[in-house]
Amino acid sequence: MTSAETTAPFQVAIIGGGLCGLSLAIALQKRSIPFQVYETRGSFTELGAGINIGPNTLRTLQLIDPSLGQALEQIWCRNPPGREDVWMQVRLGAPDGQYEDAKLLTNLMAPPTGNVTMQRNALLQLLAERAGLEHAVFNKKIVSYCQSDEGVVMSFADGSEETASVVIACDGIHSAVRKAMLEPENPITGPQYAGTGAYRSLLSVEDLTAAIGSDMACTSQVFLGPRAYVIMYPIDHGKKVNVGLWPLRPEPWENQHDWVLPAQRDAMQQRFVSWGATIHKIMDLMGNPAFLAAHHHAQNPDSYFDGRVCLLGDAAHAMTPHQGSGAGQAIEDAYVMAEVLRCVDAHKSVSEQVQAAFTGYESIRKPRSEKVLQTSHEAMSWWTGLYEEPLTDERLQKLVKEAEQRFHWIWHDDVAAQAELAVGIMKRKLQR
Ligand SMILES: Cc1cc2nc3c(=O)[nH]c(=O)nc-3n(C[C@H](O)[C@H](O)[C@H](O)COP(=O)(O)OP(=O)(O)OC[C@H]3O[C@@H](n4cnc5c(N)ncnc54)[C@H](O)[C@@H]3O)c2cc1C
């Protein structure tokens, strides 16, 4: 990659090289806006196994860089022929006498691409390649910042300081920038336990096919059952299947510093004992998985920005994954932010321009991402509520209808129009 040349009057510091930070890096590079990525780790690395993304996310990645569409095809995995536009097959996970185990309730459709899944690290490496390593400094953990009319001074854990015209915080759910911006005044704006979590495992598709048949093993599935749901989808070109068992677990999570309980096979088996044969066969393959407690931002600030510093992605609105949408919202943020920053006028005051840009970004992105956050949290009770009353055909049909409505507005929003609206707000603010 050649270094970005620009006439833009400012240097953007991106804090964090996760999916959000690297999406923003590519978007800025494509728009010739100079930037530097500061990442606390020694390299760009994703820890989780699989990720699934909806049609809105694919379209946004292509808006960021049109060539990403083809590149993604090299790493993605989709449902098998005939089911390419299916997001998930929704099934009953626990038989109840009237309905058989693994009864198919619906093929939940997400045209045109259906469920697009991939290894998290494969997606991150693809983005890192496009963003360019010359724009990254590793082992740089931001701890605080202070700002003046001239710019922002960032302080790092190694004692160093760096200056930038603006700071875009993409440093995830544990965001140090969010903490510095909000928590001294309001500690509740930190991540809160979401009353659930997952036993997670990565299975070989051959083993799973032998256990439950290729029909279910090779297509993305959600199983609904008493006080829990199970999600699984193929990744790694269909060689592996990413599995998560998500029970409700309302008791408080005591250890705020460690969200993982290792070796939870017995607890898992006990928790899902009343489920059907299909889920028991899946659990038998999972070995002794860890339990990851889910956290989210139960309370969000009035504003995502403070002067020249702005929050994006999980730093702004970390959500539970019950609608598979956190990364998608982070990537939409990155696109809209790049589009407002490209409109900064070199001949006017940077501070004023940046305030207007951030106002445009926030006015459009905050309501949408926080609605996704809120509905993702509610989706846990919705996925798990079916078994709270006796199953009937009428209740099953109602659930199918609600499922379609639940996702449609997330997947089929016009992200380019979001950016146009944000730019319009920015320009009107500058005209005043
Ligand atoms: C179990 C689970 C499953 C999920 N499944 C899905 C899914 O299927 N689909 C979906 O769309 N979303 C999913 N999500 C949500 C998704 O993972 C996040 O929304 C997404 O990763 C957010 O990206 P981000 O770049 O904002 O944050 P992160 O991915 O957390 O990246 C933050 C980056 O900042 C760096 N950093 C942190 N602190 C500092 C610091 N002080 N200084 C410098 N750098 C720092 C980190 O090292 C990291 O590289 C899931 C989440 C979970 C927990």
UniProtKB/TrEMBL annotation:
Cross-referenced Pfam families: FAD_binding_3
Record GO biological process: secondary metabolite biosynthetic process
Keywords annotated in UniProt: FAD, Flavoprotein, Oxidoreductase
GO MF annotations in UniProt: FAD binding; oxidoreductase activity
Domain of life: Eukaryota
Positions of the FAD-binding domain: 11-375
Annotated InterPro entries: FAD-bd, FAD/NAD-bd_sf, FAD_monoxygenase
Gene3D superfamilies per record: FAD/NAD(P)-binding domain
Keyword Amino-acid biosynthesis: no
UniProt key word Oxidoreductase: yes
Name under which the protein is recorded: FAD-binding domain-containing protein
